[in-house]
Specification:
InterPro entries: Ald_DH/histidinol_DH (IPR016161), Ald_DH_C (IPR016163), Ald_DH_CS_CYS (IPR016160), Ald_DH_CS_GLU (IPR029510), Ald_DH_N (IPR016162), Aldehyde_DH_dom (IPR015590), ALDH-related_metabolic_enz (IPR051020). Helix content is about 40%, strand content about 25%. It has about 475 residues and is α/β, with parallel strands linked by helices. The protein folds into two domains: about 270 residues, Aldehyde Dehydrogenase, Chain A, domain 1 (3-Layer(aba) Sandwich), CATH 3.40.605.10; about 190 residues, Aldehyde Dehydrogenase, Chain A, domain 2, CATH 3.40.309.10. The longest helix is centred in the first third of the chain and has 23 residues. Bound molecules: glyceraldehyde-3-phosphate.
């Protein structure tokens, strides 16, 4: 697979109109591994002119693609899912080097993506239109009927993040394709090798030339240009709130679907199963070193059970393996960049200076940060509000559930929250008051299963993802009204 996408010097190319091409100016961005800084390849630094070509190509190809039957499109997606699984080891290896994710998670990301693609094809095959009788509206006779079908939007710009370079690219591409759109994929530079690999998979599966194109390049050079391009009809972005807000400020009249930052709270009530809560907090907070938008990012625990919970969390953190994912099976991996680790250090320093109690970790070697737990975190500390995107969890002790709800809702974010309790009434009391897209009862915060609606409120996002929801977001209703004159 890889040989088609790159030359002998490890320069990868972009997929444009079914061909793997360099940028016009033949400039490259070198991709280094966050594990050891080794050079693992380079991707074209595309220019505005290259972007024009990619978008124009998509626009033309979409005219053909929208007329390919849903069944034929689905067959291509089933094939793509099989090709992905057949190449799991090669892709997982590339992913591990490119984003420092542990091997098991890389492999499961590939499997999950194949499942996602198959489920998307199945779902699209089962979406039907509707007919609406006119006479249910006051004053309308029974001589009108609206036949509502779904139409594609045109060219979808899919901007994927570094942390799920395969899954969060496919979760935009597959629903977009099934809805009849052409796609321009702009992956984050770190993660772009995996994004290009995924494009190769779709190409191999038979997606028509020009229907899926890729654009790699520096956000500072082409970011604003591509997002405001008149040929783009829809933007599906996953990434930071800062960039998401910027995109929403500079675009106009283009629908947006965005998954942004989060500060997901785990709220532990007095009657919670503390073993269950501790297990979920540790896996939810520290997997992939906390570099997930849905990671548990703060613990709001009732004072009465705080000590008992902490004891269990500390014991579980001690079992986490820290190190190099290329060498061993590890839980805690180096962060994506030195800069990302610097930011986490800053939050830890602020918490220490303001009196938080460091219970575990707090150490750092380069961009590898040990799993860290702070107790006695207060709302004056940055760690109570800011998203570290690293393996650091603050414990905020609260007197009752209403205080927990207040602190949870005072956040600028509203992605998910978890509540741990054995009492269904208490679960609903808390869930009904939280300003988030999803509340998990007795589980860590997480996106999957991927056919559930996934959304963030406030600064955590715009619109709703999830397989059927994404297909609907990337299409629009088209009504044909039959008027009967008899
Ligand atoms: O980082 C953002 C992802 O959407 C999180 O997905 O909950 O499956 O890890 P996840």
């Amino acid at each position: 697979m890889l040989n088609i996408m790159k030359d002998k010097d490890n320069h990868y190319r972009n997929l444009i109109n079914g061909n793997w091409v360099e940028s016009k100016e033949k400039r490259y961005i070198t991709i280094y591994s966050p594990i050891d800084n080794a050079e693992i390849g380079s991707v074209p630094a595309m220019s505005k002119e290259d972007v024009d070509i990619a978008i124009d190509t998509a626009k033309q190809a979409q005219k053909l693609w929208k007329n390919v039957t849903i069944d034929e499109k689905a067959e291509i997606l089933y094939k793509a899912a099989n090709i992905l699984v057949a190449n799991k080891q090669e892709l997982a290896e590339l992913m591990m080097k490119e984003i420092a994710k542990d091997r098991k998670s890389c492999e499961s990301e590939v499997d999950r993506t194949a499942d996602f693609i198959r489920f998307t094809a199945d779902t699209a095959k089962n979406i039907s239109g509707e007919s609406i009788p006119g006479d249910s509206f006051p004053g309308v006779k029974n001589n009108k009927i609206s036949i509502v079908q779904r139409e594609p939007l045109g060219v979808v710009l899919a901007i994927s993040p570094f942390n799920y370079p395969v899954n969060l690219a496919a979760s935009k591409i597959a629903p977009g394709l099934m809805a009849g759109n052409a796609i321009v994929l702009k992956p984050a530079s770190q993660g772009s090798l995996c994004g290009l690999y995924l494009a190769r998979v779709f190409q191999e599966a038979g997606v028509l030339p020009g229907v899926l194109n890729t654009v790699t390049g520096k956000g500072s050079e082409i970011g604003d240009y591509i997002t405001t391009h008149s040929g783009i009809n829809f933007i599906n972005f996953t990434g930071s709130t800062e960039v998401g807000k910027h995109i929403s400020q500079i675009t106009s009249m283009v629908p947006l679907l965005m998954e942004l930052g989060g500060k997901d709270a785990a709220i532990i009530l007095k009657d919670a199963d503390l073993d269950l809560a501790a297990t979920n907090i540790v896996s939810g907070g520290y997997s992939y070193s906390g570099q997930r938008c849905t990671a548990v990012k703060r613990i709001l625990v009732m004072e009465e059970v705080a000590d008992a919970l902490i004891e269990k969390i500390v014991a579980k953190i001690a079992t986490l393996k820290v190190g190099n994912p290329l060498e061993e099976d590890v839980d805690i991996v180096p962060l994506i960049s030195e800069k990302a680790a610097d930011f986490v250090s800053e939050l830890m320093e602020d918490a220490k200076e303001k009196g938080a109690k460091l219970l575990v970790g707090g150490t750092r070697e380069g961009n590898l940060i040990a799993p860290t737990l702070f107790d006695q975190v207060t709302t004056e500390m940055r760690l109570a509000w800011e998203e570290p995107f690293g393996p650091v969890l603050p414990i905020i002790r609260v007197k009752d559930k209403d205080e927990a709800i207040k602190i949870a809702n005072d956040s600028e974010y509203g992605l998910q929250s978890a509540v741990f309790t054995e009492n269904i009434n208490e679960a609903f009391y808390v869930a009904n008051r939280l300003e988030v897209g999803t509340v998990q009862v007795n589980n860590k915060t997480e996106r999957g299963p991927d056919h559930f609606p996934f959304l963030g409120v406030k600064s955590s996002g715009i619109g709703t993802q999830g397989i059927r929801y994404s297909i609907e977001s990337m299409s629009r209703p088209k009504a044909t009204v039959i008027n009967i004159h008899s």
